[in-house]
Amino acid sequence: MVSRVIPVEPFDLVVFGGTGDLARRKILPGLYRRFLGGQMPPESRIIGAARSEMTEDEFRAMARAAIAEFVSADKRDAAMIDQFISLISYVAIDAKGDGGWATLKGMMRKGVVRAFYFSVAPALFGALAERLHDHNIADAKSRIVVEKPFGRDLDTARALNATLAKHFREEQIYRIDHYLGKETVQNLMAVRFANILFEPIWKAQYIDHVQITVAETVGVEGRGAYYDTSGAMRDMVQNHLMQLLCLIAMEPPYHFDPNAVRDEKLKVIRALDPVEHQDIVRGQYLAGGGQKSYVDHSENPASKTESYIAMKVHVSNWRWKGTPFYLRTGKRLRARTSEIAITFKEPPHSIFDDAEGWRENVLVIRLQPNEGMNLMVMIKEPGPGGMRLTQVPLDMSFAEALGEDGADIPDAYERLIMDVIRGNQTLFMRGDEVEAAWAWADPIIQAWERKGDKPRGYEPGTSGPEDALMLLHRDGRRWREIRE
């Protein structure tokens, strides 16, 4: 199967924070891959903007080094790299002053899409938006891309939205969450809404429970000071896991349209029940395996910030009443994996004697590694000797199912940046969606702070704190094993 490449319009993309880690690891390599794939027109331009006094040649050398480091060898075509590098410019910018803005304005072209990527600290979002407006660099059709965190609570999220709204309309603001750019996440919508097979049974009557797991093997070393002001709840649950939950639980939108999709996601967030204290487990990884502990990495021996969280959540609407959603995410766990597992209920009556061998049907959606899906179903065990049941997967790995060409799946950032150029906001969060998520998360965080409990310690390389097992055990269920 050969994937279709649909080129976007020519554009000017300004990457504020162009010398930063995200630009080096994701943005510049991703744009090169889109150029190599024929999706980014050669009339386009990329303009790096940062505080550093750097020449254009120095910035181009940095971009070339980033491609060499973060693009696989089979995608590094010398001639194409040279062409791509020729599209890159650089300007030194003072985000809170006037330095460089006149130069940037002179670099803007008429008749092309203008996009501005704020790959900087949120504290600079307002200053950049204001100067783009005051210097007449952004026009009515321009788009801005803002990275998370979108605030650290409801009040700061509202303030941030209000700041951006002074200079840009909501349809010009693209709040990027890279999880929504993953191929499997989008395929989740296709599986649900393009197949009559699943939609009739996608509800509490047939689904026993849902597990959403995002596990990482790395710790917070190198960013411990930042992470200690955030924690797993703010860093992962309020945005990434919330978005995955919304896509699982949302009602079918009337059309695959940005606002229609986001309207349905917003309804899910507003239908979330408050979470009781006994339905949450927080953890911190300990030292082990030659690695330091969380408190060592955060340089805060008294830290009460969680590097792991597991929780049981309920969506109070007609579709999901009574079906629990179990969410968990953490650092220094057994394997790096992200998956959604939808466990269906057992048939109301079994006609087989081998009842003890029964296992539920489970639809597993793997986000990483090895993006794909499998459906665990019961079949007859081969061989004579009666009707014995066994469980087997109906497996669809994208790499295997789509063939060599189809398996060349773009990185999430590549897809999302191209959506910005197209003006498609379907996979980006709307301002009211962000605020609703914080309105749900804030009381949970505030309850922890009032209680003052320290998170449970857990050994690195495990599945997290032992207490997390009880979340499911007391409901007669078990967590899925964390493995690659």
From TrEMBL:
The keyword NADP applies. It catalyses: D-glucose 6-phosphate + NADP(+) = 6-phospho-D-glucono-1,5-lactone + NADPH + H(+). Keywords: Carbohydrate metabolism, Glucose metabolism, NADP, Oxidoreductase. GO terms for biological process: glucose metabolic process; pentose-phosphate shunt, oxidative branch. NADP(+) binds at residues 17-24, 51, 148. Residues 14-187 form the Glucose-6-phosphate dehydrogenase NAD-binding domain. One of its GO terms (cellular component) is cytosol. It is an enzyme of class 1 (oxidoreductase). Gene3D superfamilies: Dihydrodipicolinate Reductase, domain 2, NAD(P)-binding Rossmann-like Domain. The active site is at 240 (proton acceptor). SUPFAM superfamilies: Glyceraldehyde-3-phosphate dehydrogenase-like, C-terminal domain, NAD(P)-binding Rossmann-fold domains. Substrate binds at residues 178, 182, 216, 235, 331. One of its GO terms (molecular function) is NADP binding. Its EC number is 1.1.1.49. Pathway: Carbohydrate degradation; pentose phosphate pathway; D-ribulose 5-phosphate from D-glucose 6-phosphate (oxidative stage): step 1/3. Residues 189-480 form the Glucose-6-phosphate dehydrogenase C-terminal domain. Belongs to the glucose-6-phosphate dehydrogenase family. Catalyzes the oxidation of glucose 6-phosphate to 6-phosphogluconolactone. This is Glucose-6-phosphate 1-dehydrogenase. The gene is zwf.
